[in-house]
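Researcher: Here's the sequence for the chain we discussed earlier.
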Amino acid sequence: MPSARASASPSLALIKYWGKQPGGVNIPATTSVAVGLHALRTTTEVEGEPSPAGRSPAARLSIDGVEQLITPFEAVIAAVREHAERAGSRYSAYDLTIDSRNSFPTAAGIASSSSGFAALVGSLATFFELDLPDQEMSALARTGSGSAARSVFGGFTRLDAGSRKASRIHPADHWPQLRVLVAITDRAPKAVGSREAMERTRRSSPYYDAWVSDSVSLVDEAIAAIGERDIERLGTAMRASYLRMTGSMLAADPPVIYWIPQSVAIIRLCEELRASGIHAWETMDAGPQVKILTTTDDTPAIRAALESSGAVVGVLESEIGGEPSWRVG
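Model: Thanks. This is the structure I predict for it:
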């Protein structure tokens, strides 16, 4: 059977994407600035065989060995298959078996949807023998997950409010000393998915409009800090972004609360580390895990503090990168 494989990394938003514009498919309400986590990967393999005569081609998909309902993935698969049909791909009418596996906890607040849909699009495009530009790949990945539009690129990226596709700000080697530590506080899948939580916040939080209008103020600051490789300036903007996003979530009805006691303990630990002169700038997303932006020099001290804190069940470390990889077979 013909097959193809692709891998991509999670896209960690430093300036947050939280909220979708009505009337589109995962069109962001806020501009996000992000980095790819090179050491964390989603690997997706596609195999195909001709569909029986008289039946439309079908697809099956599993994540970490567990078969999933195909509904959340149908739009992306159909969109890439449509490209294949227009291009005259010899495999456009094949049934597909798709296997996706993560090197990190799935659906636990580490942006597995971003790497997952980017790897899905990459594997499908490779299987169908399509030569699509990165911008089109980004737009296709966005239809599955807004943040996946950024995972198509490595390094430092942005996804503008109202945009269909992301773009790269700097390559991965722009800031080689930068590191991200992911403090895992709970490996279980989160109870409320990001999409549902975003919509609940948009519909019911009295602070949502203020969050959207204010978020733009941090974008230029973060991009300038990345350009100057100024971690304190970037960390300050990053911290403001996640706390303001969280404020809008807490005010939803019912409130969206992902933090657990261990999350708060790590936030406090980062405050203490910064007070001692260590670069430990935390951020959080839709989940209880805490991501810490730092440098190679300070990574050992932060890792040691996390591991002795009693608040983590694991620590992942990554350099900035995350360039995707697609290949046949």
